[in-house]
């Protein structure tokens, strides 16, 4: 499944996320990493020093998604700034239709 505007693919299906009871806000391109992390957390009784590898991999994926969105937004802002400052055309005093003969 391809997600518009992202370089990462959705790997986990909706059925897998529903079965794993992944909360809706966490159903993103990193959900396939959250499912085994949550299973590990439940098996290890949420001990903070357990499941470090799974947590690190999941958090790295989330970080990459955030950075991708930030870079994309920065490019959009730069394009808007360039279009506002670079292409300002003055309002013509004589409309084009007046010059038509």
Automatic annotation (TrEMBL):
It is a peripheral membrane protein. It is found in: Mitochondrion inner membrane; Mitochondrion intermembrane space. It holds the Pfam family NDUF_B7. GO terms for cellular component: mitochondrial inner membrane; mitochondrial intermembrane space. InterPro entries: NDUB7. PROSITE patterns: CHCH. Residues 77-101 are annotated as: Disordered. Accessory subunit of the mitochondrial membrane respiratory chain NADH dehydrogenase (Complex I), that is believed not to be involved in catalysis. Complex I functions in the transfer of electrons from NADH to the respiratory chain. The immediate electron acceptor for the enzyme is believed to be ubiquinone. Belongs to the complex I NDUFB7 subunit family. This is NADH dehydrogenase [ubiquinone] 1 beta subcomplex subunit 7. It comes from Castanea mollissima (Chinese chestnut). The lineage of its organism: Eukaryota, Viridiplantae, Streptophyta, Embryophyta, Tracheophyta.
